Amino acid sequence: MNPSDRSDRDAYLEEIEEGLRSMIRWSRRHSSQLAHDLYQGLDLTALTILAALADHPGSRLTSLAESLKLDLPNASRQTSLLEAAKLVEKATDPNDRRSTLLSLSPQGQKVLHQARRDSTDFMHRIYQDWDTSELAHFATMITRTIETINSINSPLTDHHS
After folding, report:
1. CATH of region 3-150, choose from 3.40.120.10, 1.10.10.10, 3.30.450.70, 1.25.40.10
2. The whole model's pTM is what?
3. In whole angstroms, what is the distance from residue 133 CA to residue 139 CA?
């Protein structure tokens, strides 16, 4: 690779990195606002917990916290708030009567469904001027990026070993 190719590549990578950071900041703000608007006091972590429970009903708190990279006290506090808001239900684990399993309540399912519908509607607004081939290419690139990220244990592992 010649030096000018290297500087072009670095410039593109910097632009991609900044774009991803901006999208992450926007996504957090948008998701937090959406969560708050849907249910008074609901925050982004709570909405994330609802989504995780939709994907994995009957989860233990420890498994939920681990999968979402939350510390156990925070996960416990959030799920207690969600239970008090009637969005999450607890049940005794039939295989271990000392353990509790968490699932979405019917109201929690409604809130999450509305959040997903609002998010989809917003995506339609963002990409309304894109044609199908542009959307397909962008979707392929995002999927490829996520697959690569998932194949790397840590962003620092290979670089600093």
Report:
1. 1.10.10.10
2. 0.74
3. 10
